[in-house]
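wait is this the right file?? whatever heres the structure
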C-alpha cells in the first residue's frame, strides 16, 4: 500500500512539474533595449572627421535619448517617440537634435533613424544569429550578427553584466575600413557604439597599405548615465 501511494505521489509530482515548466514565461530578451516612457540614456560622444589635405576635426559632446511618449504608427502598431538632445558640455542646457522612433515586434526591434527603418535586434538574442538590418529600407543588404551574448562589458568605470554585441560590419582592406559595432546591456539598452568609415590613400604605390586616411569619419558613443524620469 505504501509503495502504491509513493508511486502515485511521484506521478502527480512529475505531471505538476511538467505543467509548471510549460507555464514558465520565456525570456525573449526584450529588456536589451527597454521601451518605456520616461526612460533616458546619456552618452559621451567623440567624433572625428577626415578630409584630404586637411587636419582632422574632432568634436566632443553629450547626447541624451529619452522616450517621451507612444503613438500608433501607420501599420496600426504601438511605437515610441525618441527625443534626441545634445549639448557641448555638462554645464550647458540640452537642445533638441532630432526625433527618432522605435517599435518592438514579437521577434525584432525596429528603430527609425533619420527617416530609415533598421532592424537593430532580434529576439531572443542568440550567439552568431545573423540577419539583414536593412530589410525595411532601400540601402541594400547589411549583415548583422550577434556576438558575446550574455557576456559582461565595461564602459569607462561601469560594468554591465549581461550584454549582447551586434556586429553590423567589420571589414578592412588596403583601401577602406567599415567597422560598425553596437553593444546592448540588459535593463539599459545601447551602452556603446563604434562607427568607423574610412577611405585610405590608393592614388600611388607609395601610400597603398599604409592606412593613410584620405577621408571619412570615426564616432565613439559611450554611456554616461541612465534612468527614468
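ok assuming it is, sequence goes like this
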Amino acid at each position: 500500500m505504501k509503495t502504491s501511494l509513493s508511486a502515485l505521489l511521484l506521478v502527480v509530482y512529475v505531471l505538476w512539474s511538467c505543467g509548471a515548466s510549460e507555464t514558465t514565461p520565456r525570456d525573449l530578451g526584450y529588456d536589451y533595449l527597454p521601451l518605456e516612457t520616461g526612460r533616458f540614456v546619456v552618452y559621451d560622444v567623440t567624433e572625428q572627421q577626415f578630409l584630404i589635405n586637411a587636419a582632422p576635426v574632432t568634436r566632443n559632446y553629450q547626447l541624451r535619448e529619452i522616450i517621451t511618449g507612444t503613438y500608433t504608427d501607420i501599420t496600426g502598431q504601438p511605437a515610441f517617440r525618441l527625443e534626441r538632445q545634445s549639448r557641448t558640455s555638462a554645464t550647458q542646457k540640452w537642445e533638441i537634435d532630432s526625433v527618432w522612433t522605435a517599435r518592438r515586434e514579437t521577434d525584432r526591434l525596429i528603430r527609425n533613424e533619420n527617416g530609415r527603418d533598421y532592424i537593430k535586434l532580434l529576439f531572443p538574442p542568440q550567439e552568431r544569429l545573423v540577419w539583414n538590418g536593412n530589410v525595411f529600407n532601400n540601402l541594400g543588404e547589411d549583415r548583422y550578427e550577434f556576438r558575446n551574448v550574455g557576456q559582461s562589458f565595461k564602459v569607462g568605470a561601469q560594468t554591465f553584466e549581461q550584454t549582447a554585441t551586434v556586429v553590423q560590419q567589420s571589414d578592412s582592406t588596403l583601401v577602406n575600413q567599415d567597422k560598425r559595432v553596437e553593444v546592448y546591456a540588459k535593463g539599459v539598452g545601447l551602452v556603446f557604439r563604434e562607427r568607423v568609415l574610412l577611405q585610405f590613400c590608393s592614388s600611388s604605390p607609395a601610400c597603398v597599405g599604409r592606412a593613410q586616411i584620405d577621408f571619412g569619419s570615426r564616432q565613439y558613443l559611450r554611456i554616461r548615465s541612465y534612468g527614468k524620469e
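The chain has one domain: 28-228. so i think its the right one actually
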